[in-house]
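Entry 14. Structure prediction run on the chain below.
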Amino acid sequence: MTAQADVVTFNADAGLYAVPVCRVQEILDLRPVAAMPNAPPHLLGIIDLRGENIPVVDLRRLLGRPDGADTGQSRILVVWVAHGAGRAIIGVKTDRVIEVTLLDEAELKPLGEADLLRWSGSAIAGIGRCRGEVVSVLDLDRLFAPLDLALAAGHRQVPGGAVLPAVA
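Output returned:
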């Protein structure tokens, strides 16, 4: 019997992506995002999630894909990523969340074995199949590693938690 992994599948541009369920805190309907001055293009801004400021990143922009129109199916995946000695909570805007499903880990191939070009800093943990479609499983830690998760001076990251405003 082969091991299977629970993943959340979603679209960004024409791509089908997945992340492990254990990394997803919740899935939100798209909501207004407070823009951050001088933010990089992929950082849409922040949302208030039960009193916590959560940065929201546009996955399309982060992956170098063209912008797309928001729809009634657009969602924000709230995920955690390793950051220093703790975790950072980040919202990831997607075009559509499809489902929670199982991927056969034995059939998940690293990029080299999937006959794809390797590129520096690739955030793809592997390539699999879901209902006959190719799915790219994202490595969230590698995807967000080059980003400044503190957003700006005046924010702090708490062990096991989100990036929060600094206490004066």
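Residues 4-145 form a domain with the OB fold (Dihydrolipoamide Acetyltransferase, E2P) fold (CATH 2.40.50.180).
Filed with the rest of this week's runs.
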